[in-house]
Amino acid sequence: MTRSFARLPAQLLLASALALTSCKQAAPPAPAFQAMPVMVSAVSLAPVPTGDTYVSTIRSRRSATMQPQVDGNLTRILVHSGDAVKAGQLLMTIDPLKQQATVEQQRGTEFQTKATYDYNKIEADRQRQLFEAGVISRDAYDQAIQNLGNSGGAYNAAREGTHTQQQQLAYYQIRAPFAGIVGDIPVHIGDYVSATTILTTVDEPTDLEAYIYVPTERSSQIRMGLAVDLLDTNGALLTHSTVDFVSPEVDNGLQSVLAKAAIPASTHLRTGQVVNARVIFSVNQTPTVPVLAVTRVGGQTFVYVAAPKGPGFVAHQAAVNLGDIQGNNYPVISGLRPGDRVILSGTQFLQEGVPVQPITPGAPPAKT
Predict the structure, then answer these.
(1) Other beta carbons within 10 Å of 288
(2) Structural domain includes residue 366
(3) How confident is the model at residue 197 (pLDDT cuts 50, 70, 90)?
(4) 128 within some domain
(5) What would the pLDDT profile of 254-300 be if each residue is shown by its tens digit?
(6) What integer pLDDT is reported at residue 28 of this predicted model?
(7) What is the DSSP letter of 258?
(8) Looking at residue 345, what DSSP letter applies?
(9) Domain of 184, in residue numbers
(10) Is residue 4 one of the residues assigned to a domain?
(11) What CATH number should be reported for the domain holding residue 184?
(12) Pick from 249, 198, 202: which is nearest to 222 by CA?
């Protein structure tokens, strides 16, 4: 059989080789990989605030600590913590019996001195008539005038003493100094209180400010007019404000500087509430990337970028270092440049080098 194949004419062998070559050339080419349409957004510069967050306490600019000016036992407590009170409203009473006895005693002294004064007034008039009639000497008449003056002075002093003791009775009634909200009431009916006892507090709820203690290493940067964002414990914005007071001294215990920020009346914050205060020290133009473009793998953050390659684009996974979220964007610390087109959609289906067709939101698909 081998011998027969070898005897074939050379022309026939050449024809067979040409036939095989033409068959290979006629095979159709493999289809190109279809580019995946993706939404993209160009990295752009945006104003990004830079600052630090500190724990802050809400306090009222008008806050009164109620302490008695007299000693005694509490007989009535007419309000509860959290009650809204009017200016002058009665809050508590202290047993006034001892003071009432003092008032009655002083009133008795007043009546006694008045009786003496009235007698000396009559006596002085009688002595004047006797002196004018030449019955008594000048010395006797002068003595009567002196007695009248002394008794008049004693009567006036006793009368003022009664008035003073009556005024002291008012101190046994604890009244609100202005309209506000009653704070904690740590005392009870029957408790003995003195001038050092704290009965309660009254805070005006419409004039609040945030107390912010800034560490001393930031003391050179804290100044009037800096923007302040007040946040709740979940990071949600409560209100905007600005620094309107900076203490000239350092708190030795906390090693910090006190700054205050006024709180708008439209907020629903309460005195004593603890919030987070983010103090904005500067605002810089920084590249930003939408939150939708960011993925995390093994604790590292990445974005896919539509990178030019030949006539089209491919997906390129770029590691990025991001700052704290600002609204719907992250500030980019490193890994991207302004103008880079980050991919927003279909990131879960992308791989490195996959062809993509960028589509800008609101614009027709890009031609490649």
Answers:
(1) 24
(2) no
(3) very high
(4) yes
(5) 889 999 999 987 778 888 889 999 999 988 888 888 888 898 888 88
(6) 52
(7) E
(8) S
(9) 69-93+173-199
(10) no
(11) 2.40.50.100
(12) 249
